[in-house]
Please model this.
Amino acid sequence: MKEKVLEALDRNRLIQLARNVADIVSITGEEKGIAEYLGREFEQLGMEVKYQEVEEGRPNVIGTLKGSGGGATLMFCAHMDHFDNPQPTEVIGDRIYGRGLVNMKSAFPCYIVAVEMLKKAKIDLKGDIIISAVVGEIEKAEIGPFRGKTYRGAGVGARFMMDHGITADMCIIGEPTGLHLQIGNAGLVWAQVTVEGKATNFVLQAFKVAQAIQDWEKEYQQKYKHPFMLPTIQIGAVEGGNAFKPGTKPVTELYVIVKTLPGTPPMAIKRELEAVCAKVVEKDKDMKTRVELYLSTDGYEISKDEYVVKAMEEAHRGVFGKEVEYAAPRRYGITSDGSRIAPYGVPTITYGPGFGTHLVDPTETRAPAEWDTPSGVRRGVGIDNMINCTKVYALAALEICTKGREEIKRF
Model:
């Protein structure tokens, strides 16, 4: 049965789907076009299709392939939004480049073709398969002059989906892990630290605060230890003064990214940040600081004993002939919609074909090793990686959805 499923993979179909989704511009807030395209693809698979209007012009689209009954429901979830990037869609050798493919549109072709493989092989599925395409996962938050739907991200679509009745027994998210398995995510807290000082040196005073916050990371990581997650701290942006007349607005804003372990209260982070700033102020009475939080997402983790984890381990072994590697500790700091899905009692893992932040794609030769560069050049996705990922998804769905619920330990 497994061989029959694997033989049903259509490489050209996978590539064409990847090109199609990359050709549709869907930056955060403008996801309607790709939602409608995916809805049509889901209908062609024989799925029941539902649109959820998260806000005007921003629908989630949910495709459900109904099983015969009695089985577990497996969800494949991916976000449709991406950063604005003018990179054209191109197939160069065995790689595909295009808008949002790495993070994370390349998951959609893998999901769709995996379901097609099961249908072509005429597999009798007891459980349902859901493909959910959600808006607004990219980490963005409204603050200051940055207002409107372009800045409403950080899981708004997945949270809306779960709040409004779409659920499953387990979930697979195809975020870029380089085909490593991830069983959770760190959370995050974004903080605005305001530094006010004398007009003569307020920027330098802010740098002292920034350095103190960055130095705090070592102490922070000693306090918040985890078996496989590494929480980090980063000064992510700086604003200060009036550029048109320097020195006339002696205020600098530091924007801090704090990655948190699951269950860490944001208030604890706020107070620790305030304490770090207070130590700097003690030494320089001419400055004042204020800490305000403007985005918080909790992390989550699941046990390696969950059925979805075992199914993915077995599926990976079936495709590669070796054990799956788990994601490195720093990679757990990259958030995903799993943080919005898992709290509803849905064990969620991450496993995808692209190589995202903190990962180096060994087959990439065109783009730099760094994920983000000033030039906007982005890495591509390896076609072989997509093919192998699709096979793993298909085998995992075969394992999960052909069994009755009584055969799966969780139920």
About this structure: The mean pLDDT is 95. The longest helix spans residues 202-223. The first strand starts at residue 48 and ends at 55.
